Amino acid sequence: MNMYKVTDYTIYGEEMQYVEINLSPSESVVAEAGGFMMMEDGIRMKTIFGDGSDAGGIMDKLFSAGKRLLTGESLFMTLFENNYPNQRKISFASPYPGKILPIDLNSVGGKFICQKDAFLCANQGVKIGIEFSRKLGRGLFGGEGFIMQKLEGSGMAFVHAGGTMAKIDLQPGEMIKVDTGCVVGFTQNVDYDVQLVGGIRNTIFGGEGLFFATLKGPGTIYVQSLPFSRLAGRIWAAAPQGGGKHKGEGSLLGGLGNLLDGDNR
């Protein structure tokens, strides 16, 4: 079992990772619902409105929460605070097979842009918002990757990638095309757009979706090999449909091949 250790956190595991964070007295982390795994005694948990960054007034908080609601995120987050006089440990787990990516916002200019469902947890004070594109086409037609989430501040943040994760450093003017769902995140200097896949046959029969993301350097991008939407689609396609019968995957005999399965309850 590998572990990657830096001062105040450790990431455990390979395909099903979790991050263990050491909280100093009075230190806090915020997380989306569903990521919590375990914590030591002395850590207090409470539900908060917004991300707890204390940035702006009540109207700013309401506007920020409204944008999160429009993208399917919750109005509330969970705050975990160490009320113990010594360090306490708390852990957050990946929601599905993949990798946890630690982001030191100080080292990326105070801002990182990621998929809206990739965020796992962060130091309190990190502002978690929505990155709306200035190009209308991205918002109307961009598919699953067109609305991005932005993490701003000076602390540590952790995001999750499905499957195997690739890190790509783009030089100025260098461009790469990526499936919209495979984009995990990128640094703020990367110029991104969403383009329609060309060709009528590609559009109708290609099976790869209608759009891909184009990302242009300079900057660093992270790409995942297994977006959750792709995993969920394959599971749904193979699941029993209407009457409890499942597909004879890989069998030329279809349903007759199931007689040889050895499990025909």
Largest sheet at a glance? 6 strands, antiparallel
The first-to-last residue Cα distance is 38 Å
Oligomeric state of this protein = single chain
Tertiary shape: globular
- Low-pLDDT stretches are 136-145, 259-265
Give the number of helices.
4
Beta-strand segment tally: 20
Structural class category: mainly beta
Which H/E pattern describes the elements? EEEEEEHEEEEEEHEEEEEEHEEH
What Rg, in angstroms, do the CA atoms define? Answer: 21 Å
Strand order of the largest sheet: 6-7-4-11-14-9
Work out the helicity level: 10-25%
Please indicate the percent range of residues in DSSP E strands (runs of 2 or more): 35-45%
The chain-level mean pLDDT equals 79
